[in-house]
Design a protein that fits this description.
The protein has a five-stranded parallel sheet with strand order 1-2-3-4-5. The protein has eight helices and five strands. It has two domains: 71 residues; 74 residues, TIM Barrel, CATH 3.20.20. With 145 residues, the chain is an alpha/beta fold.
Length: 145
């Protein structure tokens, strides 16, 4: 899957931590060889209680495999802070779920994420450019998180 993604011009992949070391090690190794960034999903906005109960393991696993970073939902600022404290500045933290899923623009970054992922709030808007600019303004000037 990593090789095929690379052939399609994709330069980053997201994998689920629950896949386990044996499955992830091959994918991360292949990603390294191809120059593809690999990110480990270690929590989810909805449900995902197995992720959160095994958060320390997932982060430690990702670090030992040498992933590029971690995916932590914008709806869970305490988890973002916990992951950031575990990984320092050595890994990127991506936070999806801004907007439609309930994450407030700017809050994930304020809690330690490097990037906030916004999709449906822009795509589903009748004025996508305006929606994107409004979200960018909120990210730059976040309200109380």
């Amino acid at each position: 899957m990593v090789r095929r993604s690379h052939e399609l011009g994709i330069n980053g992949i997201i994998m689920h931590a629950v896949a386990g070391r044996d499955n992830l090690a091959v994918a991360v190794s292949t990603a390294h060889k191809l120059g593809v960034d690999s990110y480990l999903l270690i929590s989810m906005s909805s449900g995902g209680e197995l992720y959160d109960k095994n958060l320390d393991y997932g982060v430690t696993l990702g670090m030992s495999l040498g992933v590029s970073g971690f995916v932590v939902p914008a709806t869970k600022p305490s988890i973002i802070r916990q992951v950031r404290s575990m990984v320092g500045n050595n890994y990127q933290v991506l936070s999806p779920g801004v907007g439609v899923q309930g994450g407030k623009p700017g809050c994930a970054i304020a809690n330690g994420a490097d990037f906030e992922i916004v999709g449906r709030s822009i795509i589903n808007s009748e004025t996508p450019r305006k929606a994107a600019l409004n979200i960018l303004n909120e990210i730059r000037n976040p309200t109380i998180c």
